[in-house]
Amino acid sequence: MMDLDVETRAMLDYATKLTVEPDGMVESDVQALKDAGLGEDKILAVALIVCLYAFMTRLTSGLGVEHRPGRLEQLEGWLTGPARNNEWLLDEFADK
After folding, report:
1. What is each CA distance from 31 to 6, 50, 58, in whole angstroms?
2. Cα–Cα 20 to 30 A to 85, which of 27, 45, 74, 93?
3. pLDDT tens digits, residue range 53-83?
């Protein structure tokens, strides 16, 4: 297994459970993210990213749309850019 920091491992565990068994999510799943050092904004970002990815994947699969070449690279770029910095999520709420 890869040597991951506590925060990354907690996010991956959360994302995996939310993807594989969403009905099994409980308060302690969110608490595990808090215990790993994530604040409310990051927890919301993780949940939204997982849900958005699942939604888009099911939408395109359900419509029989073929994924464009390079799709994974585009997703990784987004996750390491604006999503990582929460720009797409939190700018609207800054200083309010």
Report:
1. 14, 17, 28
2. 27
3. 888 888 888 998 877 777 767 766 666 665 5
- The residue assigned the tokens 């949940």 is 47
SS3 track for the chain:
CCCCCHHHHHHHHHHHHHHHCHHHCCHHHHHHHHHCCCCHHHHHHHHHHHHHHHHHHHHHHHCCCCCCCCHHHHHHHHHHCCCCCCHHHHHHHCCC
Dist CA 68 CA 21 (whole Å): 28
Write out pLDDT tens, residues 8-57: 999 999 999 999 999 999 999 999 999 999 999 999 999 998 998 888 88
Q: Which residue has the tokens 């999510």?
A: 25
Sorted by where each begins, the domain ranges of the chain are 6-93
Q: Which residue do the tokens 């797409």 mark? A: 88
Closest CA relative to residue 44, chosen from 57, 55, 30: 30
Task: Give the pair of three-digit tokens for residue 30.
Answer: 């969110």
